[in-house]
Write a structure and sequence with these properties.
mainly alpha; 11 helices
């Protein structure tokens, strides 16, 4: 009786989650203010611009595949799952992620699809552990880009930038320390083998490269005027700032556009194209998986019990 009640509560919770997700989707689409700019640019886009847009779209499933493999590798410590099941859980994670600050609902939503008997807290802790590895990659690459930018500015003018870089280095050290410490929630993380750690870190780095390529492709599509050399410095700094800022779902697209204007404004005067590129990329990487995540079949999983 208690088990049936728990299943009913879980079912209603997921229904409410999906309804809220579609409410958020409607809000994001209704408040998007650049449909006119997008339509005008799309109608005048040449084959190179359209190819860039296609590249950004084609990199989306590759991004999901990498995150699925990362999630699957992390979960192998507690339960083996198939690649199809890992992708199903990752897609459903977007439903929880886009409804919570800093995407904190991502891993609880994924864990809710795991079979009974599997520790949901361990799965969530493993997910956050993997997320921190991606954050460490973002911070390290962003700091490197900041230092390169500082070297191209005369010494007296780059002092504020160097102080900023030192501040970010301290943050990076704190993140790395948190990854290695035995904090209260990290104790719930099962012991990971060196091979697992290398795989998760490698997949995090590859996902970061995919994000960078997607953004560069969108900058080419919108005709921002940012060169490849400038993008090599600006894109890591952009993702660094996003990593360090707290995110709220309702303000996420606008915040990304604002951060892009601040960072890319040092390299181009075509700021509307930059803002459009970042907001469109957010829609590709969040709206599509949100729609897919709400339609995943709950009984299509191929989870296996520990052998």
């Amino acid at each position: 009786m208690a088990q049936n009640q728990a299943h009913k509560i879980h079912r209603w919770f997921r229904i409410l989650l999906i309804v809220a997700a579609y409410g958020y989707l409607a809000y994001a689409l209704l408040t998007f203010e650049h449909y006119g700019e997008f339509a005008a640019h799309f109608s005048h886009a040449g084959w190179k611009e359209l190819l860039s847009l296609a590249l950004a779209g084609l990199l989306f499933p590759i991004n999901i595949m990498m995150e699925s493999e990362k999630w699957r590798s992390l979960l192998s410590s507690i339960i083996p799952i198939s690649r199809i099941e890992a992708q199903r859980q990752v897609y459903y994670g977007f439903v929880g992620a886009l409804l919570t600050p800093d995407r904190l609902g991502d891993y609880p939503a994924r864990a809710s699809l795991l079979p009974d008997g599997v520790s949901k807290m361990q799965a969530i802790a493993l997910g956050f552990y993997g997320s921190m590895m991606l954050a460490a990659v973002n911070i390290a690459a962003g700091i490197a880009a900041l230092l390169v930018c500082g070297m191209e500015i005369p010494f007296m003018e780059r002092r504020p930038l160097l102080w900023t870089s030192a501040f970010f280095l301290l943050i990076c050290a704190a993140v790395c320390g948190l990854l290695c410490c035995k904090g209260k929630w990290l104790r719930k993380v099962p012991q990971l083998r060196p091979k697992q750690l290398m795989q998760v870190m490698g997949l995090s780095a590859c996902r970061y490269l995919v994000f960078c390529l997607q953004l560069y492709a969108m900058l080419l599509f919108t005709g921002s005027g940012v060169t490849s050399a400038e993008a090599l410095m600006a894109i890591p700094i952009y993702y660094l700032v996003l990593t360090l800022l707290p995110a709220l779902p309702a303000a996420d697209p606008a915040m990304r556009g604002g951060v892009a204007l601040m960072v890319f404004g040092a390299f181009t005067s075509n700021l509307p194209a930059v803002a459009l590129a970042t907001i469109m990329l957010w829609m590709i990487n969040n709206i599509f998986p949100l729609i897919i995540g709400t339609y995943v079949r709950e009984n299509a999983g191929l989870c296996k019990k520990n052998q």
